[in-house]
Amino acid sequence: MRSVWALVIILILLVGLGPALAPYDPTAINIPKRLSPPNAEFLLGTDALGRDILSRLLHGARWSLGLAFLISLISLVIGTIIGLAAALCGRVTDWALMRTTDSFLAFPELVAAIVIAGLIGAGSWSLIFALSITGWMRYARVARGISLSVQNRGYVVQARLAGLPGWSIARWHYLPSLIPSLTVVWTGMFARAILGISALGFLGFGVQPPNPEWGSMLLDARVHLRSTPLQMIWPGLAVVISVLAINLTGDALRDALAKQDTQP
């Protein structure tokens, strides 16, 4: 458990301090040093344009992890609002919102994100929009299910009888019940967002050059896979370690909540 939290802390530090720790400018081209193997000057080597891979990884953490955090947060807000509305606004609204949710779930998220990004163009904003609009459905289902189980509890019924407005009841009585479960869902969706950003970056729909991002680094390195495979290994490892750390954190949170629920 301690090792999991250590990895998470390292990821947070990379987002905040990564650019300050980078030894070189991640966009500086140095043709005489192109495709250098790891050495004392360039600890992880250089890419086809002579750019320091370590510096690009550290700067890329802000794009890959920072954008994933933003995307998962936007999806969380959208899904929570839709789930609460489905549970609280009557059967017709519930039916319409859940059929919309089912329609979105019918398409693979990554495929839908690729289609949307392809239609509106490449770039970080289209990346955020595409992954946010395809990532809210699980939050909505969880929020709706928990809200339906809460709405007939005594304190909620008393709040309605007291004439409290619906938004106030949702804020003070529904959200506290939603937060634990949605936090666990959020960790999984955070990891999925990292994979989505990397996949779209590898396909050329993500963060555009010269900004370093782990998926676009994989795209740049694919041509030299046989001659210098480390170019692809480093950003690939960054993605794998980040996703693993976040998934393990979600598992730890789920186990902690389950243990708390079983205690008398």
Helix content: over 70%
Q: Please, what is the average pLDDT?
A: 86
Radius of gyration: 22 Å
**What global shape is seen?**
elongated
Descriptive keywords:
single chain; 264 residues; mainly alpha; MetI-like fold; 0% strand; elongated
What is the topological layout?
Layout: H1 2-21, H2 53-88, H3 91-105, H4 109-120, H5 124-133, H6 137-150, H7 154-161, H8 166-202, H9 214-221, H10 230-262
Helix pairs in contact: 1-2, 1-10, 2-3, 2-5, 2-6, 2-8, 2-10, 4-5, 6-8, 7-8, 8-9, 8-10, 9-10
Give a written overview of the molecule.
The protein is mainly alpha-helical and 264 residues long. It has a single domain (45-262), classed as MetI-like fold. 73% of the residues lie in helices and 0% in strands. It has helices at 2-21, 53-88, 91-105, 109-120, 124-133, 137-150, 154-161, 166-202, 214-221, 230-262. α9 (214-221) runs antiparallel to α10. The longest helix is centred in the C-terminal third of the chain and has 37 residues, at 166-202. The radius of gyration is 22 Å and the shape is elongated.
What would you say about this model in short?
It is built from ten helices and no strands.
